[in-house]
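Sample entry (175 residues):
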Amino acid sequence: MDTQEIWRKHREEVYFFILKKAKNKTAAKDIFQNTFFKAHKNLHQLESPGKVRAWIFQIVRNELNDYFKRENKYVVHLESEKTAVAEEYQDICCFDRFIEELPSHYKAVIDLVYFKGKTQTETARELNISLPNVKARIRRTKDYLKQRFNECCKYKIDENGQLTGEPDCTACMNF
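Predicted structure, serialized as tokens:
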């Protein structure tokens, strides 16, 4: 497995995870770039190609921790800054809403796997459901999110199954 293959397979998931945590597009892009730089630089340390997703997310968590440590030293959190961040985050305003719209049984799986970094097996054990059930819920959630991004934000799905395009979120402003 090479860096390009890892990037193709995990870039969207990694980027949206970072953006969800950092809530700042500029910071998210920097963290995203640093993550894949470190993955490329340290690819030789990956012991099992089957664990590449966990490995890349560990790099992401480390990068996010570094980012938040740096931010806490240099940023004074004022109400106006929070408003500015919220306005910047508005470009992907639908993401949080789409996640919130999920039925609780889907939301629980997504939260554990994508936001808390648990493996699918750990998630199945924690929720007391089967591993195939976890996988089915993830697949259904991804299909739902792609459909919602396409309907609301005018994203399109390219030949590789990836979301592309510019958001036109005027539709979601009515909600």
